[in-house]
Structures are given as structure tokens and as C-alpha cells.
Amino acid sequence: MKFLIIFGSIFVPLCMYVVQNKWLKSRLLFNGAALLSGLIFGNLSATGIYKIIQDKTVFMTNIHGLFLNPIFLLTGAYLGMYFLYRLLLLIFENDLNQQNSN
């Protein structure tokens, strides 16, 4: 499982970069999915924390129940991949800009 997580965190952002170079509309798809994931991820976090505060059960173990939610895990995983994909875009765009200015 560790191998899958590490391999995925390298391979998926690279694939996203290649796909966005081949199919420009995929940028809109990736950005829209990130926006939706961010909304879901943030709202799940906020409602989980709100419930804990409302129930007055402010213990460290209660919030960890949120980590068992598969939607929370999927949206968080996508946001992680998207963040790495955007870093790749910045690196390659800066490299291209420097090469064009010389």
C-alpha cells in the first residue's frame, strides 16, 4: 500500500501534466475538480468540527472519525495530486520562460 501511495503521488501529477499538454480542455476539468474537491473537503471538515463543538466532545480522538469518511479521503487525495500537478506546471513554465528570455 505504501508503494501505491508513493508511486501514485509521482505518477498521477505527471500524467495530469502530459494530458493537459495534449488536451487543453483537461485544464478546465482538473481545475473544476479541484474547486469541487476543495468545497467538499472544507465543508466536511467544518461540519465535523462544528458537530464536535456543538456536542461538547472536544477530545482529540473525536475528530479522527472524520478521517474514516471515504469522500473526505478521496477529495483530500485529489487535492494533494492537484497541488503537485500545479507545482509541476509552475516549474516547467518558469523553465520555458527562462529559456525563451535567453
From TrEMBL:
This protein's UniProt keywords: Membrane, Transmembrane, Transmembrane helix
Transmembrane segments: 30-53, 65-85
Protein name: Transposase
